[in-house]
UniProtKB/TrEMBL annotation:
It catalyses: Endonucleolytic cleavage of RNA, removing 5'-extranucleotides from tRNA precursor. It comes from Falsiroseomonas stagni DSM 19981. Keywords: Endonuclease, Hydrolase, Nuclease, RNA-binding, tRNA processing. One of its GO terms (cellular component) is ribonuclease P complex. Consists of a catalytic RNA component (M1 or rnpB) and a protein subunit. Residues 1-10 have a biased composition (Basic residues). Belongs to the RnpA family. Its EC number is 3.1.26.5. One of its GO terms (molecular function) is tRNA binding. This is Ribonuclease P protein component.
Amino acid sequence: MPARPPRLKQRREFQRVSSRGTRVARPGLVLQVLAGTEAPLRVGFTTTKKIGNAVTRNRARRRLREAARILLGEAAPAGYDLVLIGRDATATRDFRTLLGDLRGALKQAGLLKPAPVPDPVP
């Protein structure tokens, strides 16, 4: 089981990533990336009241944490701060689709390398 990446917890850390970083949007989430930090990869999770009540927001954050743990667990690139922002669809979206959204956002941001294509067997 991959370990959890370290977390962003303070408001000023989230604001720094938001103001200086790049942004990638997908239907299930928004990814903000700030490169050039000296620390190992750190991830923060947030949702707004626009997506629903506390139960819905907590569910969205739990799903984002699990998706990040799966995709970033052991092969996490160092030197980045990430913020994952939940959207309306995050809490109800099929989990495989949510993983695909995160994978696509990470690839677009340049954090995940494309999977190698296997050689065809003659």
